[in-house]
Amino acid sequence: MKQNKTFKTLIADETLLKALSDIGIYITNYETDETLPSHYWTDIKDKFQVDRTSDGFLENIHPEDRKRVSESLTRKREGKSSQFDETYRLKQSDGSYLFIKSTSMVVRLKEDGTPLIIVGSDTDITELKQTEKELKNSIKKEKKRSRELELMRQMSATFSSSLDINETVQNILEEMRRIIPFQTSTVQLLKGSYLEVLGGSGFEDIEKIKSMKFKFPDAGSLSTKALQQRIPVLTNDIEKEFPSFSQPVKNMTLRSWIGIPLIAGGEILGLMALDHTEKGKFNKHHLEIAGTIGDHIAIALENSLFHESAYRMAMEDALTGAGSRHRLQLEGRLLYETAIRSKSYLSVGIIDIDKFKLINDEYGHGTGDLVLKRIADLCTQVLRVTDLFVRFGGEEFVMIFPDTEKAEALNVLERIRAGIQGIKHPEFNKKVTVSAGLYSACPKKEETLSSFIAKADKALFISKDGGRNRSTIFSD
User: Fold this and answer.
1) What is the dihedral of CA 134, 135, 139, 145, to 10 degrees?
2) Both 179 and 299 in a single domain?
3) Is there a catalytic annotation at residue 288?
4) What is the pLDDT of residues 191-203, one digit of tens each?
5) Domain region containing 66
């Protein structure tokens, strides 16, 4: 009885009661079923009415946590556990929930070994749980972003692997469905006064869709808006935002739409359209991805429509098989603009064959040509499909590494430099070496690809002045 009187004296002290409650302390006497609750509970229950063994306690705990907490309390009450350590959601008077970390220990036992008095603490960890949730979401987004980047790299390889523009468009649109939730899509070529469907995805009979024509310009047309203003257009409620929209297919009412103008070399080539019959299917992130892919499709269209085989010859260096300066201007510009849009790193490397003139003078230009070919072959083997490799002039080659920071790019350059030094040349028993320069940064709109190349070239000259056969990173 003295113990119970002590407890009653304790809870009768209002100052002490408030101090303990405010710091999250609670005390329970299992013999009298009295509880000195923490303030988290007094905020929603009258003082001393919270019994952690009763339904009155459990009814305020989130249904998903209730059974687990109840079982833990039962184990402690029956003397099977001396500790209680649970995290649960506590319902507030306004209906919202706090995350509570509750820990308690038995400090006095009854004669039968079951708890008499327990002391514990409640801690509000709601902010910690929110931070944890945000961190998980951030990790999830980063994983999703990585998958998207890998998929876009694969699509970039698709452009290089096929000369058939129809096949390329079909493959790209099918792949894009994995990261953008559209039902149907089309790529349309601008032919004077109309847009003509070149290819598409998601239709029951794609052949019926091909060659379908849409008037251009057409008042109230989303396609006309995208092309005339040269901007991507997104709507998640066509009927409300564009009531004059002309539905392209019978028995299929589109409600969400993305339109990407396909522009290359400053000229409008056509439009890529992504559609869905439900409202609210697209967001700004989808628009950004579609814009990046649209840039690639635009380049592919330019290649196919305006140059064909002659254009391909212009894109390659006839001697080495590396890209030409023309290819650098086109694809390099695309990689640069994509880096600006995605705010990602772009690295530019340059290698120059050391004392190449002596090889030509001593062994002839034919031998010099063989050296150039072997070096170009090695570079192609080391570089990724997504990297751009071109012969810049004479014995100088340029490499562009998209979405690559300087440490990774330098590692590739060093592998190339070491590999070139190991090439055997039957025509003469000497090692051929190269000097290299590198510049890496996140491109800004006020800069140009030419400025990146110029800085890499300065770093190359530092390598030359430093004794050759080495790599140097340009530092602003």
Assistant:
1) 50
2) yes
3) no
4) 989 999 988 888 8
5) 2-124
The catalytic residue among 34, 302, 331, 395 is 395
With 80 as the cut, is the pLDDT of residue 371 above it? yes
Same domain, 156 and 282: yes
* Total residue count of the chain as it appears in this document: 476
pTM of the model: 0.41
Cα dihedral: 244, 247, 250, 255 (round 10): -100
Name the β-bridge partners of 434. 353
All residues at 6 or more sequence positions from 73 whose CB lies less than 8 Å from its CB, including other chains: 52, 53, 84
CA-based angle 165:167:168, to the nearest 5? 60
- Taking only the tens place, the pLDDT of each residue in 426-441 is 999 889 999 999 999 9
102 belongs to a structural domain: yes
Whether omega for the bond prior to residue 217 falls within 30 degrees of 0, making it cis, is yes
What are the distances in angstroms from CA 219 to CA 39, 186, 193, 255, 413?
Answer: 65, 21, 13, 19, 53
Token pair, residue 288, equals: 């950004």
Is residue 10 a part of any domain in this protein? Answer: yes
Residues 248/222, Cβ–Cβ less than 8 Å:
no
